[in-house]
Specification:
Elements lengths: L10 E4 L28 H16 L6 E2 L1 H20 L25 H10 L9 E9 L3 H9 L6 H4 L3 E7 L1 H7 L14 E8 L6 E3 L4 E2 L4 E3 L25 E3 L2 E4 L9 E7 L7 E5 L11 E5 L7 E6 L9 E8 L4 E7 L2
Helix pairs in contact: 1-4, 2-3, 2-6
Length: 345
């Protein structure tokens, strides 16, 4: 079984803000039993939100707003994971999870991600931002800007970071959890940080957006698909993959494009390669590839984790070459063509 050292499964839940009352079956699961109403953002939160916004800016998206109630939800769940690891052998026990099965954990709120988000807002009836109707959570074993880099240099964990709908964010890790509960061991010494980020989204109009930014130099060369669960290019450890794409380990850095449509693509032409050289093979993931035909060096696969209009282009090679400029071209439904280039360090 592959041990996920980098990323945990992405969790997205749609909900109605008007039905967001917290609760825990009669038990006190409110955050007020541990912390007071949030008064502001910790420096680490701003660092993480700023790092996420930096990637979003490169993709042509609006900045995120840090939100203290989401910070609390993220910090509580980060603390839950830290305490589980600390009680089970420290660095020898990986406790990355979206669930909370141990109700005896001092930072337990609920096994339900949906309920944890509800509880984070329940102390203030006016705390829900107008129009918020979806929440997402991503987790890494690292913290801060390093965790944001892991999430962005992935497929499924990039989704909430790259979507137009995402407007609010909160963050927590071992350090902030220790500020809530001194039983959480200090950072360092091999302890994992369990950086956890919560997102709130609204119904939002989409425009064409893509990453890497045209003319930019990116900070990555490759992505190990085995570090992400579920594995976007299924491995051999028994995972249930959301697509039928071929098994791969390391690939080139994932490239994405979002096109404003709520329908399946009827035609998609994708080309990718080093400038001045022949095109390179790519694996292309979309929500529904039923109407698409493999052509040239592009192979298309349906992926249930994506939304209509989202395209992931995965260079089918162990790594991009350093010091190289790559060109990308995507023609959508035999209509507009989007072409851009980027360079590697």
């Amino acid at each position: 079984m592959v041990v996920r050292l980098g990323l945990a499964v992405l969790c997205c839940v749609g909900f109605s803000a008007c039905s967001s009352s917290g609760g825990g079956g009669g038990e006190d699961r409110s955050l007020s039993r541990i912390v007071t109403t949030p008064q502001g953002e910790a420096p680490s939160v701003n660092t993480v939100v700023d790092a996420t916004t930096s990637y979003r800016t490169e993709a042509g998206l609006a900045a995120l707003t840090a939100y203290a109630y989401l910070d609390q939800a993220a910090t509580m769940h980060a603390g839950y994971q830290c305490l589980e690891e600390d009680a089970s052998g420290g660095a020898n026990s990986l406790s990355i999870t979206h669930g909370e099965s141990n109700s005896n954990n001092p930072m337990f709120i609920s096994d339900s991600f949906f309920e944890r988000i509800n509880v984070a807002f329940s102390g203030d009836p006016a705390s829900w931002p107008p129009g918020v109707n979806v929440a997402s959570e991503v987790i890494a074993t690292s913290a801060g800007a390093d965790a944001v880099g892991l999430w962005w240099n992935s497929v499924y964990h990039r989704l909430p970071l790259m979507r137009h709908e995402t407007v609010r964010a909160g963050y927590g890790d071992r350090a902030s959890a220790r500020g809530m509960n001194p039983n959480v061991q200090a950072t360092g010494g091999g302890n994992r940080d369990y950086g956890t980020m919560e997102f709130g989204g609204v119904s939002a109009a989409r425009t064409v957006s893509f990453w890497p930014e045209d003319g930019s130099t990116i900070g990555f060369l490759s992505f190990n698909t085995d570090s992400e669960g579920p594995d976007p290019l299924d491995d051999v450890d028994g995972d249930s993959s959301p697509n039928a794409a071929p098994n791969r380990g390391a690939i080139g850095v994932p490239i994405h494009l979002i096109f404003p449509t709520a329908a399946k693509f009827t035609n998609l032409a994708v080309q990718f390669g080093a400038q001045g050289q022949a095109n390179s093979p790519v694996i292309v993931l979309v929500k529904d590839a039923d109407l698409l035909t493999n052509a040239g060096d592009a192979s298309f696969y349906s992926d249930s984790m994506l939304s209509h209009g989202e395209v992931f282009i995965l260079p089918d090679m162990p790594s991009l070459a350093s010091g190289t400029t790559y060109a990308v071209s995507v023609t959508v439904n035999a209509g507009p063509t989007y072409a851009w280039s980027f360079s590697t360090p």
